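Crash report, auto-generated. Payload:
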Amino acid sequence: MNKILLGLLVGALLGALDGATAWLTPAVRAQIVGIIVGSTMKGVIAGVAAGIFARKVNSVPLGILFGLAVGFVLAFLVAYLQHGYYLQIIVPGSIVGMIVGWATQQYGVASRSPVAAR
Amino acid sequence: MRFLSNKSIEKLRTAGSLPDLSGTGYALVEFLARGGMGAVYLAKDEKLNRRVALKILESEDPQGTLVNRLAREAQVLAQLEHPGIVPVHDAGTLEDGRVYYAMKFVQGSRLDGFLANAASLSERLRLFLRICDTISFAHSRGILHRDLKPANIMIGAFGEVLVMDWGLAKILVPKTRPTTSSTVTEMPDAITNGTPFRHADSEITDVTGDGMVMGTPGYMSPEQAGGNAANVDERSDVFSLGRLLALMVTESGNTKPAKSDRALRAMCEKASSRNPGDRYESVFSFAEDVSRFLEGLPVTAYHEHIWERMQRFYQRYQAAILLITAYLTMRALFILYSRH
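Recovered output after restart:
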């Protein structure tokens, strides 16, 4: 599996799970579907970005750092649009970005192997 | 009356001992090193305008033993086309009757010298895997090295690993089922004619029983030291590689990696067991275990306890475990906070 596809899948899965944890907060339980969809999209974007980065840069610490940056920016945008829950959205969102960054560095194929000369 | 200085005398003496390369197509540049049976010179290939290393037989050889050995070494090298083996370009005889062969000129340092500057354990292990890859390739072509030691491993200027000095190589003729035991006979050569042989670079050689012992103490397998060439097979090189690995993972160069991982120590011990049956069956399986160790997976040479397994799992997925723990902690704290 290539790194971009891996990032997309891991990002989507972790994003969905992260969004689903909102169900444990009674105040936002009514908007759970919208939160899960938004969080999944956020995870997909972070995952694809981390996958592209991992194809170009082969470094676990840098991958985690990149995931942190992307996760932070995306989570901040979501929190800004919602006008609240900054800490509750940004901190877990950034950590999810870091996990996706780690996964794309650790696993997946960076690029296609060169075609043998005929 | 003027006397020549010691320096001038030394220069004249050196010039007098230099080989005459006329008629070979090579021009002598400088002396490089002296080995067991020959000296290595840097020369210029005048036809192709490139630098080559010339290995020329130097020792007295009335019986022709060393001539055969050098010629066979060239033939062995010529059969082995691999990035880890120095390619032979040419072989021939000088006007004075001495045998030579020309090979690629490699610039770099010997393994023991290189290890002093090599940084991490994983770098050393990756280097070791490249040595294994070369030896495994030679074994697949039915050739045993039989003299693996740090002095015979060169690290090139670009980090390439080259296994040198195939003068003691043994050519195996496979049985009908080559995967089980491939050693049957040895190519007819002049090595085992009963004449004791002594390497120049401090290797002690000895005669035991009716066979001749060649190799380097400390790296030579017990069956090789026993002088029975028929008993020497791939596992003899596995033994030497086990000793080599033990040296590579210890900074001090002790035979046992005292400070390193138990699994690593077990691999070294398994590879260099006295009994060939207790060793890895092939260099490939040894290298596979080292690769598994590098990847943080369990190795076949060591049965780990559950606590060690957990420790290894944690080390392998440390970053992910810490991140997931941080995430769950954060989530738990936020939930608790929102409920209060």
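Post-recovery validation: The longest helix of chain A spans residues 32-56.
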